Amino acid sequence: MTNQKKRNILKVVLTFILLVLFAVLWLGYFQLGLFSFNKENAVSIYGTIVQGMSALLSVSIAVIIFRIQSLENRLHSLEDFVINYIFQITHQIYPKWLPILEEHIRNGSITNKYHKE
Prior knowledge:
This protein is mainly alpha-helical. It has helices at 3-31, 39-89, 99-107, 109-116.
């Protein structure tokens, strides 16, 4: 026998086995009512699954919120660091934090002054 004939025979046998298996399962489940289970168990199982998924969702939302707060805290810390650094650089010229210092930061005169030196 060639390989092609062997494959064809194997396909026919597998198809026959699947059809017989399907027929037995169909007869057992739907016609005879075998292998049935209590519907209350299924409702309980589905309820547990829904509770688990909602708990997982709430934990995920909490993690996202904490992560966003952490990033905002880092941003705030970075802003404080930059402001303190500017204050330390300009402490000689601007001994206090005045509105004119903010104006010089905005228009870039501080940057130009220190790049010239």
